[in-house]
Specification:
alpha/beta, two-stranded antiparallel sheet, 6 helices
């Protein structure tokens, strides 16, 4: 397996702290979410900015997620695993081909996958072609996922990363699954996914009564 691990106390402590906080924030948030449609075998796709809350909302489903091989990615990988995800380590700059092939293998085996299609470095809310390629190679449909939080902290980062705050409300929505066939135009499918994700986030914010980004 394409795993990179570090055993330092710092990684373990900070990952446990992040997991405990996200779990507490999620547990105290009134989440309104429909059940995952169908048999749950999808490539779950959500914007990178909403990753923290998605870890809680999609926990314990045995989903395999792509996480960077960088040192910072080790924190994310540990937190991700604590929420019941499996991790595949790689990015566009490090281990990209190997990690993508591992995801394809898992997807063809019928295991659900997850990816942030604008990650790990952006541009913000612009779908990269990796998720489209993955869907074509695995045969798994892409399931767009959008959410909105009534209480959050928005970071001054490239993606405006959102940290959920406790005791709020959350709205989570699923879009229509997107099936990608071999030979489909990547740009067309990427634009379809991008439109769906933005629409879901806008609808979720409207339900919470807070328009805007």
């Amino acid at each position: 397996m394409n795993e990179v691990t570090h055993t330092g106390f710092k990684h373990a402590f900070l990952a446990s702290l992040a997991h405990s906080y996200i779990a507490f924030a999620g547990h105290t948030t009134r989440l309104n979410a429909p059940p995952v449609p169908g048999d749950g075998r999808y490539i779950f796709a959500a914007w990178h900015s909403q990753l923290a809350f998605m870890l809680y909302a999609l926990r314990n489903r045995g989903i395999s997620a792509l996480v960077s091989r960088s040192a910072d990615g080790e924190y994310a990988a540990r937190v991700t695993r604590k929420f019941g995800f499996n991790t595949v380590r790689g990015s566009s700059s490090r281990g990209g081909v190997r990690s993508m092939m591992e995801l394809v293998e898992r997807g063809r085996g019928g295991f659900p996958l997850a990816i942030t299609p604008d990650g790990p470095r952006g541009p913000k809310r612009k779908v990269q072609h990796g998720v489209i390629y993955l869907a074509a190679k695995t045969g798994l449909p892409i399931l767009p996922v959008g959410a909105a939080l009534s209480r959050r902290v928005v970071m001054n980062s490239w993606d405006n990363f959102e940290f959920p705050l406790p005791f709020g409300r959350a709205e989570l929505l699923y879009g229509d699954p997107i099936t990608v066939l071999e030979g489909d135009d990547l740009k067309t499918r990427a634009a379809q996914l991008e439109t769906s994700l933005n629409s879901l986030c806008e609808r979720a914010r409207g339900i919470l009564g807070r328009p805007g980004n």
